[in-house]
Amino acid sequence: MSERPADDAGERPEGRPADARPASGPESGRRRPGRRPGAADTRGQILAAARETFSEKGFDKATIRGIARQAGVDPALVHHYFASKEGMFVAAMELPVNPDEVIPTIMNGPRAEIGERLTRFVLTMTSEAEARQPVLALVRTAMTNDQVVSMVREFLTHALVNRVAAELGIPPIRMEAAFAQLFGVVLMRYVVKLEPLASAGIEELVELLAPTVQRYLDGP
């Protein structure tokens, strides 16, 4: 039997018997289950492939299977890390919220208070610099890049606007108006920094804006 190669220092590790054999069994020389050999950051590979695919094809035409192929992984592994294409987009673009999680929260409660819940959520979420910066960065990029603006439009339409409009039974244009109202306020508040809007408190703005947002959602 050939001898085990010497350690880098030329000595056996402290505490190892002189006649000890190399360890064998499931704990020896194997990576943990679920990780491919040589793939130390499979999730990172998927996200990199997702960013490239979304940028090239837009949100609508990108597919989980296509992103998996680009990343060199099985589609089931993509589903393991990201429950949906929307969730993968959120992670790839480093957005602060996932529609799959937010929409049920906003819809849970009296319909007459959805405008207030939606308004408070958007204003509260964007009040934190760490949360709003990726959103504003994506908006700024979309203003000068046709591919990015198409990707953002498709995501907002299918992941947010149409889903909420369908649940409320209203035309999508009403949801678009509600989102436009709120994100217009966010841009004026944090990009233009228009006063006194920029320094107004969240509850003050909720009281001011929620009735108008609710009116959009109460349509026939």
UniProtKB/TrEMBL annotation:
<dbReference type="InterPro" id="IPR036271">
    <property type="entry name" value="Tet_transcr_reg_TetR-rel_C_sf"/>
</dbReference>
<dbReference type="InterPro" id="IPR009057">
    <property type="entry name" value="Homeodomain-like_sf"/>
</dbReference>
<dbReference type="InterPro" id="IPR050109">
    <property type="entry name" value="HTH-type_TetR-like_transc_reg"/>
</dbReference>
<feature type="DNA-binding region" description="H-T-H motif">
    <location>
        <begin position="63"/>
        <end position="82"/>
    </location>
</feature>
<feature type="compositionally biased region" description="Basic and acidic residues">
    <location>
        <begin position="1"/>
        <end position="19"/>
    </location>
</feature>
<feature type="domain" description="HTH tetR-type">
    <location>
        <begin position="40"/>
        <end position="100"/>
    </location>
</feature>
<keyword id="KW-0238">DNA-binding</keyword>
<dbReference type="Pfam" id="PF17920">
    <property type="entry name" value="TetR_C_16"/>
</dbReference>
<protein>
    <submittedName>
        <fullName>Transcriptional regulator, TetR family</fullName>
    </submittedName>
</protein>
<dbReference type="GO" id="GO:0000976">
    <property type="term" value="F:transcription cis-regulatory region binding"/>
</dbReference>
<dbReference type="GO" id="GO:0003700">
    <property type="term" value="F:DNA-binding transcription factor activity"/>
</dbReference>
<dbReference type="InterPro" id="IPR001647">
    <property type="entry name" value="HTH_TetR"/>
</dbReference>
<dbReference type="Pfam" id="PF00440">
    <property type="entry name" value="TetR_N"/>
</dbReference>
<dbReference type="InterPro" id="IPR041678">
    <property type="entry name" value="TetR_C_16"/>
</dbReference>
<feature type="region of interest" description="Disordered">
    <location>
        <begin position="1"/>
        <end position="42"/>
    </location>
</feature>
